[in-house]
Amino acid sequence: MKKKSLPEKSVLLLVGLALCAFVRVPAASATENPSPQQIIFQYSGVIPATSTGNISTNFPTPFTGTSLTDQSTRSGGFQASYSYQFNKWTGADVGYGQFRVTQSYSSDSGSSSVQSNLRQGTTDIVFHVPELLARIHPYAVVGVGALRFMPTENANNIDGAASETRSAFIYGGGADIDISKRVGIRADYRGFKFKAPDFELPELTTNMQTRISEPSIGVYFRFSKVSFDRKGKSGN
User: Which domains does the chain have, with CATH numbers?
Assistant: First the structure.
């Protein structure tokens, strides 16, 4: 039997969590009162980790039979997301972001690089923490995403680099801070775990898992505001 990969397990976990969240939504809340909806705009920093793996001896120089290190530049960019809260405890959001990064590959035999536009799509289950302060709403997230690496026309890019997509497991948390009933500030951190990109070039393949850390700050706009009592029922 084929063993499920981490992204596949993550998708199954999310589906199960989403079904549980919908089941727990009280009937009165679902039919009589709208759940909070938000659009969020954020500036995010991209802080990549370094991965190292071995290259097969079947491929030519500069990396033949050596240990290859993949290190990406730090970057920043903007992202937007939409969130929907099912009840007092759970919600979900979907997001899109775009950044520009440069992957640098090096070994004892040589080095090369690929500059690319990084586009990310995310789907997260949000776990809301019971509020300790009236205007601060902490949360934790777990989700899955797709990272699309698209080489630019940079003259320093290695020949043959092609666009590719990596699936990612997402984890993190943060807090929404109300400025008013409709507007607030969001600060959060999300980590992405995925297979290191190789731009479909065997000589750039490390076959290693890597990660990206994304701290971010931004503003949110709320479409509706309802409150949930201790039993999860909503009211105006």
Answer: 6-227 (2.40.160.20)
Distance of alpha carbon 91 from its chain centroid, rounded? Answer: 16
DSSP letters, 159-170, are TT---EEEEEEE
The model's pTM is: 0.77
Q: Are 52 and 72 contacting, i.e. CB atoms less than 8 angstroms apart?
A: no
Report yes or no: 145 and 122 within 8 Å, Cβ to Cβ: yes
What are the structure tokens assigned to 185, written together? 């500030």
Whether 129 contacts 22, CB under 8 Å: no
Contact predicate 205/189, CB 8 Å:
no
Q: Please choose, from the candidates 2, 10, 4, the residue with its C-alpha nearest in 3D space to the C-alpha of residue 146.
A: 10
- On the CB side of 196, CA atoms within 13 Å amount to 28
| pLDDT tens digits for range 118-140 | 999 999 999 998 777 788 999 99
Query: Which residues contact residue 9 at a Cβ distance below 8 angstroms, ignoring those fewer than 6 apart?
Result: none
- b or e along 143-169 (b: 16 or more beta carbons within 10 Å of the residue's beta carbon)? bbbebbbbbeeeeebbeebeebebbbb
User: In the chain, at which residue ranges do the beta strands (DSSP E only) sit?
Assistant: 37-48, 51-54, 67-72, 75-85, 90-107, 110-128, 136-151, 164-178, 183-195, 209-222, 227-228, 234-235
